[in-house]
Write a structure and sequence with these properties.
Layout: H1 2-20, E1 24-35, E2 39-50, H2 53-73, E3 81-91, E4 102-113, H3 119-128, E5 133-134, E6 138-140, H4 144-169, E7 174-188, E8 198-199, E9 215-227
Length: about 230
C-alpha cells in the first residue's frame, strides 16, 4: 500500500509543478461605457413642530399625506413611494434643564421618478405642499447589468491587446488565458445638478440648471495569458 501511494505521489508531482511553473504575461485592461439615466431617486423630509407629541405628529402626518397624494397624481407609482422613517423628539433649549419647549416630528420618504421631464415640477410642487427638504438627486439606469457587461467585455479585449503587444516586443505570442479576475467595478453618477439639498425656504427655479448628463460605468479586468 505504501509503495502504491509513493508511486502515485511521484506521478502527480511533475504534473503539479508543470501547472504552477508556467510562463505567463499578466495584464490589466480598463474600459468605460456611458449610459443616459432613465430614473431619478430623491429623498424628501417633512419636519413639523408642536407643543405636544400628538400635535407635532398630526401636523407631520398631514403634510406627508398631502405629499403622497400629490406624487400619485403626478404619475408616481405607489411602489416608487416608500416611507423610510418617522420619529418625534422633544426639544430642550437648555440641555442642562429638563424643560421641553416643543416637540419635533420628522419623516423621510424615498421617491423614484421614472418620467425625468417631471423632476423640476415635482420638486417645486412638493415644496408647495409643505415638504421641508429635498435631497440631492441620484441618477440611475434600469439597464445597469447590460452596461456592466459591456464594460467588462471591453476591458478583457483591452487586456488581451496589451498582452499581445508586450509578448510581441519579446518575439513571442500569447496562448490561452490562465486566469481572469475582475479587480474593480465602479458606477458613477453625473454631477449634473447641485449637490446642495433644496429646502422649503429656497427657490427650486433656476433656469437651465437641470441636466441629465451620463452615468460612467467602469470595469477593470486582470488576465494572465500563457506565453508561447
Amino acid at each position: 500500500m505504501k509503495t502504491l501511494l509513493l508511486l502515485v505521489c511521484l506521478l502527480i508531482a511533475p504534473f503539479v509543478y508543470a501547472q504552477t511553473d508556467l510562463a505567463l504575461v499578466r495584464t490589466t485592461g480598463e474600459a468605460v461605457v456611458y449610459a443616459v439615466p432613465d430614473e431619478i431617486h430623491i429623498s424628501i423630509t417633512i419636519t413639523e413642530i408642536g407643543n405636544t407629541v400628538k400635535e407635532a405628529r398630526n401636523k407631520n402626518n398631514e403634510v406627508s399625506k398631502n405629499a403622497i397624494v400629490y406624487l400619485k397624481r403626478a404619475g408616481i407609482a405607489e411602489k416608487h413611494i416608500q416611507t423610510q422613517y418617522q420619529y418625534v423628539n422633544p426639544v430642550r433649549p437648555n440641555y442642562k434643564k429638563k424643560e421641553i419647549s416643543h416637540y419635533e416630528a420628522r419623516q423621510s420618504i424615498q421617491i423614484c421618478i421614472k418620467d425625468l421631464t417631471k423632476y423640476e415640477t415635482i420638486v417645486d410642487n412638493l415644496l408647495e405642499v409643505g415638504v421641508t427638504t429635498i435631497g440631492s438627486p441620484s441618477f440611475k439606469t434600469t439597464e445597469s447589468r447590460k452596461y456592466k457587461d459591456q464594460a467588462r467585455q471591453k476591458a478583457i479585449v483591452a487586456a488581451k491587446e496589451k498582452a499581445e503587444l508586450l509578448a510581441g516586443a519579446l518575439g513571442q505570442s500569447i496562448g490561452k488565458a490562465h486566469d481572469i479576475k475582475e479587480k474593480n467595478y465602479s458606477y458613477s453618477a453625473p454631477l449634473a445638478y447641485s449637490n446642495v439639498a433644496v429646502s422649503s425656504n429656497e427657490s427650486a427655479q433656476g433656469g437651465d440648471t437641470f441636466a441629465l448628463g451620463q452615468l460612467e460605468i467602469k470595469a477593470t479586468i486582470e488576465v494572465a495569458f500563457i506565453l508561447e
